[in-house]
Every structure is written in C-alpha cells, then in structure tokens.
Amino acid sequence: MSFAESLESLKKFDVNDLDFNRAGTWPLLIQLIVFVIVFSALLGGGYWFLIQDQFAILDGAAQKEVELRREYESKAHKVANLPAFKQQMVEMEESFGALLKQLPTDTEVPGLLEDVTNTGIGNGLEFKSITLKPEVSREFYVELPIEIKVVGGYHEIASFVSGVAGMPRIVTLHDFTIKPVAKSDEEVLEMTITARTYRYNAGRKK
After folding, report:
1. What is the 3 state secondary structure string of 85-117?
2. Cα(51)–Cα(11) distance, rounded to whole angstroms?
3. Rounded to two decimals, what is the model's pTM?
4. How far apart are CA 141 and CA 171, in angstroms?
5. Residues in the chain with pLDDT < 70?
6. So where are the chain's domains?
7. Which residues contact 108 (CB under 8 A, 6 or more apart)?
C-alpha cells in the first residue's frame, strides 16, 4: 500500500473502529503512530523507573566525592602543618610554665606578704592591718585574698598601688575604699583594699 493510499485510508478511518485484537489490519500509518506512542511511553517509563534512579545515585556519589575531597584536603593541611602545631604546643607549655612560676606556692605566701609590707613602708604608708582571708578554690587555681588597710597621703597610696601591681608575682587589686582620716590636720587618707594572689591548684580534678 502506497503512502497516498495509507493517507486516504487514514482519512476514512474512525478511531472508534480501533480493535486492538485486530491491530494487524489497521492502516500502516495508524500502526506507525501507535508504535511511536507505545515506544515513547516505554522510553519515558524506563527513564522514570531506571535511569532517574541511576542519576540520583550518580549525584549522591558526586556529592560524596566532594565531601571526601574536602576531608582529604583538611587532613593534608593538618599533616603539612604538624611541625608548626608541635612547635606551638612547646611554646604554649613554656608560657604556661612561666605563668606557673609567677604563682606563689603555700611556702612563698609569707614572703609575698613581706614584700607587700615593704612596698607600703617604702612609700611612706602606715599599715593598720593586713589580713589573710579564706582561700577560694577554682578549677585550675586557688585565690588567696589579702585585706590591706593603710594610712598615708594620696601620692603615697598611688605609688603603693603601682608598686604592688608591678611585683614579679601575680597580684591583682580589688574592692578598694578611700576615706579621709578624721581629726587630721594633714591630708591623710585611709585605704582599704583587697589584694588577690594565686597559686596553681595541683589537686584539680582531671
């Protein structure tokens, strides 16, 4: 049957006359159209159920490759800088050791009190009292509060505070009050201040 004859048969063909049991008797053009439709449906279904899953697996593998590459680059960077990290650890340990040396031990506290007293007397102050307060335990260190009460002039007090702050051992100053001394002809002040020194808490929990 020629193409012209097939086209003429197609014009006369009624879709309602389609009988799938007699598909072999359909006009050639109808058979070709149905074949294309069925093939396209099969191709689309195959893509949806098979190929699309493969693409999803491929995308997942590509993402995993990116993550592994980043992890590799991170580890390679750490390995490459390992000597520098080790050197930093050594320097940190040395710095920590130097800080520990600035913290007085139990046996050095009397000497520290003596240094504080000498600093005050050397600046012309009169000590009214110097009292050790209860220790305060922290995670890595222990605070040793010392309440100091001195009498003297403004400049003498300022020099004393500066001298204590500049001592080789770590000493911090807190909670000070200054008031004039009653019935004094001169500008004499009374200062109460808390000095805190620290020692390493060797018995800390690990």
Report:
1. HHHHHHHHHHHHHHHHHCCCCHHHHHHHHHHHH
2. 39
3. 0.49
4. 13
5. 1-31, 34, 42-55, 96-107, 183-186, 202-206
6. 1-80, 104-200
7. 169
Gap between the Cα atoms of 31 and 28, Å rounded:
5
End-to-end CA distance of the chain: 96
Q: Give CATH for domain 104-200.
A: 3.30.70.60
pLDDT, tens digit (0-9, with 9 covering 90-100), for 143-179 = 889 999 999 998 999 999 999 888 877 788 899 899 8
Whether the Cβ atoms of residue 116 and residue 164 lie closer than 8 Å to each other: yes
Tokens 């009397």 identify what position? 110
pLDDT of the residue at 167: 84
Tokens encoding 137: 């335990």
Q: Are 120 and 127 in contact (CB under 8 A)?
A: yes
Residue 99, both tokens: 């800080």
Q: Tell me the three state secondary structure of residue 19.
A: coil
Burial 157-194 (b: 16+ CB within 10 A, else e): bebbbebbeeeebebeeeeeeeeeeeeeeeebbbbebe
- Alpha carbon distances (Å) from 41 to 15, 16, 28, 55: 20, 22, 20, 20
CB-CB contact of 164 with 130 (8 Å): no
Strands (E), the chain: 126-132, 136-137, 141-152, 171-180, 189-200
